[in-house]
Amino acid sequence: MELIVLLAFAFKAAVAQYVFSDGFENGLSNWTPATLTCTGTGTAGIDSTFAHTGSNSLKVVGGPNYCDHAFELTTAVTSAAPLIYIRFYIFHTTAFPTLHTTFVAMTDANDGGNDLRLGAQNGNLAWNRQSDDATCPSQSPVGIAASVTIPNNTWTCLEFKVDETNGYLAAWLNDNPIAGLTAQNRTPDIDQAWYASKPTWKPLIQNLKLGWEAYSGEADTLWYDDVVIATSKIGCGTLASTTTTSTTAATTSKTATTSTVATSSSTTTTVASKTTTSSSAIVVKSTTTTTTITTTATTTTTTTTTIPTTTTAKTSSTTAATTATGTCSIKYGQCAGIYWTGPTCCVASTCTYSNPYYSQCL
Ligand SMILES: [Ca+2]
């Protein structure tokens, strides 16, 4: 018993920032289907024939209509709060469309329980806030160009950060920062509009939902694997400090496996088939992960308590002045479209029809 405690400490010292790691080798035991307002043809479930590592992955068949959405959910993110890093490998098969889609959704308790979404619009990745349909980057030519797409038919490493204390976001594709997904500096075309409509925006994330949701008739089939949630940058390669792990490795073989989750440190994400080598590492890893979760959960409880204090202390008087949009969308914001429930007038711009689902202030 003592040994286990010691191990837990040693392990915590090394990789305490990891609160969750799942390669779906134990099925969906760490996930639950997200409860959605309507259901259609979308499905999410284990695929035991295709994986980034190991044998299993999460397969999502997302239908074209809004109700054809499907998501699997974990609440482990709350153990990493208030600074949450999430990394996974994603493999999708249809180019991101011009119109808006979502593949990651997170319930935000500070935003009326609406989702903070990561998806795509105009072919590139974008954050989207369900409550006011704000996007980061702005869907202007400059904003769109500051983001990237996820290539089809290859496993790709995607990581993002939600900093609840400061209300900041960041993201990396194959470890490369995505400028357009950085919400922090109130930069025109990037995140100015994001904060303009909600100057004191600070999310309180309740869960991570991986799946698919379309708003304009777009379908995609996707796979997810090797999901890690942590309190610091994870990266696409090896999971954190191998240093301490090697110390503990002497004690038990159990720990020896921990260092490895992302043994596939190759950022050369090639087509799916080349995964066999690291597979066993991942499988064993899941045993250790359980230890991590417990350990870190304890630490985080303390951290979580601090959130209200921090939040209240930070009233941003600076940002309030940035842009007063009133009830109209700002330039490059959405102003009309099927499913659109936001403002229909524009500040210093004209609501311009793009398609039945999207009109933009230009
Ligand atoms: Ca797997």
UniProtKB/TrEMBL annotation:
Gene3D superfamilies attached to this UniProt entry: 2.60.120.200
Signal listed as a keyword: yes
Molecular-function GO terms, alphabetical: cellulose binding
A GO cellular-component term linked to this record: extracellular region
One GO term of the biological process aspect: carbohydrate metabolic process
Keyword list, A-Z: Signal
Signal peptide (from-to): 1-16
Domain CBM1, first and last residues per copy: 327-362
Taxonomy, superkingdom: Eukaryota
Protein name: CBM1 domain-containing protein
Native source organism of the sequence: Physocladia obscura
